Amino acid sequence: MHSSFFFTFSALVASVATGAVINPRYGSPWTTVKDHRLIYQFPNGTTVENIAVRSNGNILVTLTSSPELYEIDPFNPKTPKLIHHFSGNLALLGITEVSPDVFTLNAGNFSAETGLSPGSWAVWQVAFHNEQTKISKVTDIPEAQFLNGMTTLESTPNTILTADSAGGVVYSVNTHTGEYKVALENDIFKPAPGAPLPIGVNGIRYLDGYVYYTNSFDPLFGRVPVSKSGYAVGDYKTILTGVFGDDFAVTPQAAYVAGNPANVITEIKLDGENKAIAGNINSTLVAGATSVHFGRTIRDKRVLYVTTTGTVNATFVEGGKVVALDLY
């Protein structure tokens, strides 16, 4: 989300977020960040929202400060390649790989000046093939108020799930036909009463028959078992409360949650145990961390890439960036 919004968000939590940097000792059950490095930093005023990784290892990032999708080679991170400027929109948000080298993303009108623009949201497809890129609209979702996190429903071909943060629902979208419908709806997805911004469910990820999710202003991390079509087939279970979460990566053992605006990455075990493994409330290491994704090549399979807004405590602003955390 736009940095001006995160000034507000950061100010709300700066007084309550912990300042401790967790550095688990070697041999502990917790992941340790053994090294970190800057992959690329965008100019001031740029907010990086979400991340996906291609099979060739290149990173794709969406921006909320402009409706642009960039590609970055993490092993040779010179000037990023602009893949596409989505004219007619103000921001891009969630992105996911729906089939090999074919990605979908959320685009719509959202900015610090205009706020949320219900009815402006659509899902787009970006397909890479032999150095060529094809951009096409999958569908408009006029009922959506603010499409944010996105994940691939791996149990059903050509299907993604996308979270409407303001509407408090998750849509399933057939990326071939453009057909969409509400797949998940629960009070736990809705914006918290009195929230300064109308944002509830934020990041979502599908893994092994479950949809995992965060809620921004009722800070929680949870999961729900789903059918092959993405409908709930069991209870919505809250795994952890009180930890601010944006988008995240999830494995069978743990989730790695971008803690915007607490400026941390939190490892959350599926029993709710949790520790911050990088950053702290005053740190610029992952300033305004928005999303994370593991590398996909032999060289970086233990690297967690982090995107940021560049905002710390509503007082410090830098250009959004991509940071690599080497984990062990």
Automatic annotation (TrEMBL):
Taxonomic source organism: Trichoderma harzianum (Hypocrea lixii)
Domain of life per record: Eukaryota
Signal peptide annotation: 1-19
Keyword annotations from UniProtKB, A to Z: Signal
InterPro entries referenced in this protein's UniProt entry, alphabetically: 6-blade_b-propeller_TolB-like, Hetero-Diels-Alderase-like
Name of the protein described by the UniProt record: Quinoprotein amine dehydrogenase beta chain-like protein
